[in-house]
Design goal:
The complex is a heterodimer of chains A (333) and B (182).
Chain A (H helix, E strand, L loop, with lengths): L13 H49 L5 H42 L3 E4 L6 H6 L9 E12 L2 E17 L5 E17 L7 E6 L1 H6 L1 H8 L6 E3 L4 H6 E5 L2 H7 L2 H14 L4 E5 L2 E7 L20 H16 L11
Antiparallel strand pairs in A: 1-2, 2-3, 3-4, 4-9, 5-7, 5-8, 6-7, 8-9
Helix pairs in contact in A: 1-2, 2-9
Chain B lengths: L1 H54 L7 H12 L7 H17 L4 H5 L1 H36 L3 H8 L11 H4 L4 H6 L2
Classes of the chains: A alpha+beta (333), B mainly alpha (182).
Chain lengths: 333, 182
């Protein structure tokens, strides 16, 4: 048994996680793995029991032995009961997944972090960063991870923000469509300098698509503050910066930080959005998959099952060092 | 015919007005950022007495440097004399480099606060200079590029100078000479 103090060091890579996983985490998960295989067997048996019933009802309907509505209704009812039965089989495993598996992984990646499955970045905080200016009509968050990375406080969660549009067809029927504003990790991290303005660093789509005309379009953007042209050509090519103060923007975005942000962008993908407000740095990192969700078909004892979640966590906690936010040589401590 | 003439003159006047206003806006932006840099220089200038009060009891061997820095401050505000401001830059840098040799000084709470304030103001000044140079480049481009250069020449808009790093600042600091030579 390893001493608890041994796992105090944060993990820097998936390879490091694999070693810790095999020696410390996997033994703790073996009971839950037995629960998973047992649930999987019971779910398969339930399906085998239901299948002849579905076939029997289908045959009655096909042979017109019962009225069509009774045949269809019978099949739907049987399928609903079957799926509810299988769901109850998985209930215990699914309920245990986040508290037992994800919590353990979060603590392994960084012992000072706390995980709350139902917590998250509030809609007011998300909107307050002004990274996204679209009206938010539906907002959801989960999987909050928070804590201190050295001298820097970090809080993040998965976020799904959407807005809706309503149209009417020629018959006057209303059609509502939901559009994703942002889906992925939303990270709030204490910035190491005090500032009073508001700034956003957004992917530069207009300039990279339309060149000089795009630059002009950016300067005409009424929903944003003034465009701030940065003095790093590579950064300027990748991002457009809007903000309230030309000098303060450069106080925040030093040449070194711009290079660090470019390095983070290479790893996170080109959809990285960043905001700076109230001395907080906010990073919106798009992800198409729902992180931390239970894996019913994969063994819990195989580290590969957890790879994506671990890599996301290492990437997020590593942002503090990647962006040099633990350097506290200014007035803010 | 008259309609075309009137239309042409109207378009010309609108373009002239746009170019003129654009140049005024960019010149004002340069002045605005220069004023910010000036305010930051004054802020740093005001930290000098605190710096001297914090370090003089520890850095007795560097009395000459402290005398120099007091003299530099008494010559007036930095923007009044660029040479004095540059000299103040160098002297402040030399003091801060030599602070490494005074562990008692570095442990002092007062000094730590002051050191943080100086770091902050230096970083803000650097940002101010970068912002100023960006605004000047934008303005100078308008003064040089066609067709706004015609409007600039017509109304007397002159190119502005960038903040430049002096040869002394480019060189690697020789700590000993910086500290001991006035």
């Amino acid at each position: 048994m390893t001493d608890a103090s041994d796992d105090k060091a944060p993990l820097a890579s998936y390879e490091a996680f694999k070693a810790v996983f095999r020696s410390e985490i996997a033994p703790d998960l073996s009971a839950l793995e037995r629960e998973r295989t047992s649930a999987s067997d019971r779910a398969a048996r339930a399906f085998l029991i239901c299948l002849p019933i579905y076939l029997f009802l289908g045959a009655l309907w096909w042979l017109d032995a019962v009225p069509w509505w009774a045949g269809l209704g019978g099949i739907l009812l049987a399928m609903w009961i079957g799926s509810a039965w299988r769901a109850t089989i998985w209930d215990a495993f699914l309920a245990a997944w986040k508290p037992r598996v994800i919590n353990r992984i979060v603590k392994a990646v960084h012992p000072d972090l706390t995980y709350k499955p139902t917590g998250g970045i509030a809609a007011t905080e998300f909107i307050g960063t002004r990274i996204f200016t679209e009206r938010v009509d539906r907002y959801g968050c989960e999987d909050e991870v928070s804590g201190w990375i050295g001298k820097t406080q970090l809080r993040c969660s998965e976020v799904l923000a959407e807005h809706k549009t309503e149209t009417r067809d020629s018959n006057g029927r209303r059609r509502t469509q939901w559009h994703t504003i942002f889906r992925g990790w939303f990270v709030l991290v204490d910035f190491h300098k005090e500032f009073t303005g508001e700034f956003v660093v957004l992917p530069d789509t207009a300039e990279s698509t339309f060149g000089g005309f795009g630059r002009w379009l950016q300067s005409m953007n009424a929903s944003r503050d003034s465009v701030i042209r940065m003095d790093d050509p590579e950064f300027e090519k990748a991002f457009v910066v809007y903000g309230t103060d030309q000098v303060e923007a450069r106080y925040i975005l030093t040449p070194a930080l711009m290079q660090r942000i470019l390095a983070v962008r290479k790893r996170s993908g080109s959809g990285l959005h960043i905001g700076f407000t109230q001395s907080i740095m906010c990073l919106a990192i798009p992800r198409s998959r729902d992180a931390f969700e239970p894996e019913k078909d994969k063994s819990l004892l195989n580290p590969e099952t957890h790879r994506q979640n671990v890599e996301d966590l290492i990437f997020i906690t590593g942002l503090v060092e990647d962006l040099n936010l633990n350097t506290r040589i200014w007035s803010k401590r | 015919m008259n309609m075309f003439l009137v239309g042409g003159v109207a378009v010309f006047l609108i373009l002239l007005l746009g170019a003129y206003n654009g140049l005024v806006g960019k010149r004002n932006q340069v002045d605005n950022i220069f004023a910010t840099v000036d305010a930051l220089l004054k802020k740093r200038f005001d930290l000098v007495p605190n710096l001297i009060a914090s370090v003089q009891q520890y850095m007795k061997h560097e009395a000459q440097t402290l005398t120099d820095i007091t003299r530099l401050r008494s010559t007036g505000l930095p923007d009044a004399d660029i040479a004095a401001s540059n000299q103040l830059d160098r002297t402040l840098r030399s003091i801060r480099i030599n602070m490494e040799a005074y562990p008692q000084l570095r442990a002092s709470e007062n000094f730590q606060n002051l050191d943080r304030s100086l770091n902050e103001i230096e970083e803000q000044l650097s940002a101010g200079r970068r912002a100023f140079n960006a605004a000047v480049t934008d303005y100078n481009n308008s003064c040089d590029m066609f067709p706004t250069n015609i409007v600039a020449g017509l109304f007397g808009f002159k190119r502005r100078a960038l903040f430049e790093v002096t040869a002394a600042e480019r060189a690697n600091p020789d700590v000993k000479s910086l500290f001991k030579t006035p």
